[in-house]
Amino acid sequence: DTLINQIAAGEVVERPASVVKELVENALDAGATRIDIDLEEGGVRLIRIRDDGGGIAADDLPLAVARHATSKIASLDDLEAVATLGFRGEALPSIASVSRFALTSRHNGEEHGATLPVDGGRLGNVVPKAHPPGTTVEVRDLFYNVPARRKFLRAERTELGHIEEWLRTLALARPDVELRLSHNGKASRRYRGDGGIATAARIAETLGEEFSKQTLRIDHAAAGLSLHGWIALPTYSRASADQQYLYVNGRSIRDRSIAHAVKQAYADVLFHGRQPAYVLFLELDPRRVDVNVHPAKHEVRFRDARLIHDFVYRTLHDALAQTRA
Ligand code: ADP
Ligand code: MG
């Protein structure tokens, strides 16, 4: 089973940033309002994620690290309309099979916490451990037992950069959650929670004041589709190809067809060759989009891709045209 988990880890866990992504998404699925991420050596030495979410009962700790034992979907119907970020039940067993791992938690409503160590996929015993309500996952020495993968890890700075960029992507989508990142004992990023700051404030906090001022607000819904967010105006001074954020039902994804629609609307209205910076959130009935296309869930498949392309194009085209009128 360890071997199967290690093979799965090859798909889910590419580098420290993918571990951070999976663990933070679990914290969000558990309803966390504050998430602390502590790293050492770009996450290669240590990744520790602590949340204040619902927690896991001591008896359920072994289940959480068992393969395909997700608590999030119970039927195929659920898979048709996934509302959580996770659903495959692969992340914890995969990560635990390629690291020195510990899952510590206290379920809300329980008096005490407990911890389960897993070393390279070998489960230890569940023992009591003091912990506030919520969960802490520790991942030490990533890929220590898979030298072939360890070889592909890059310099500390590079791995940290990937984590910071992913965290920025998340911060834009979840202004309701306070996020803190520390590296080698030093605070490195902090996105305020303040019990849920406005999205606009989080945008400014994340992408800078200029972005929040030199952009056009988008907010449109029709035929069960909604698009909201911000698209930069030509007055925005930054090179913007690295500031293109697209979310589908709250999930950050890459999609060529939508990226094309945005670029085309921009070019058609503003006759502007530059790539527009944007933060756009598309919402639709989860039944119209398949998120189970890729283990890391970077891509989705739309049931009616053409319609969605045209909706995005039309929405942005009309909004941008207003600025020229
Ligand atoms: P998935 O997220 O696809 O369900 P994971 O392997 O990521 O699979 O997690 C397995 C299970 O462990 C989850 O379904 C959930 O029940 C539990 N779990 C993991 N992380 C947390 C957390 N931070 N808080 C509460 N429960 C968690
Ligand atoms: Mg998960």
Draw up the topology in text.
Elements: H1 2-12, H2 16-29, E1 34-40, E2 46-51, H3 61-64, H4 76-80, H5 91-97, E3 100-106, E4 114-119, E5 122-123, E6 127-128, E7 134-140, H6 147-150, H7 156-173, E8 178-183, E9 186-191, H8 199-207, H9 209-213, E10 215-222, E11 225-232, E12 244-248, E13 251-252, H10 256-270, E14 278-284, E15 289-290, E16 301-302, H11 305-324
Parallel strand pairs: 1-8, 12-14
Antiparallel strand pairs: 1-2, 2-7, 3-4, 3-7, 4-5, 4-6, 8-9, 10-11, 11-14, 12-13, 15-16
Helix pairs in contact: 1-5, 2-7, 7-8, 10-11
Keywords: DNA damage, DNA repair
Organism: Luteimonas cucumeris
GO cellular component, one term: mismatch repair complex
How would you sum up this structure, described in words?
The chain has 325 residues and is of the alpha+beta class. It has helices at 2-12, 16-29, 61-64, 76-80, 91-97, 147-150, 156-173, 199-207, 209-213, 256-270, 305-324; strands at residues 34-40, 46-51, 100-106, 114-119, 122-123, 127-128, 134-140, 178-183, 186-191, 215-222, 225-232, 244-248, 251-252, 278-284, 289-290, 301-302. Strands 1, 2, 3, 4, 5, 6, 7, 8 and 9 form a nine-stranded mixed beta sheet that branches. A hairpin with a 2-residue loop joins β4 (114-119) and β5 (122-123). Bound molecules: adenosine-5'-diphosphate and magnesium ion. The site of magnesium ion has 5 residues, from α2.
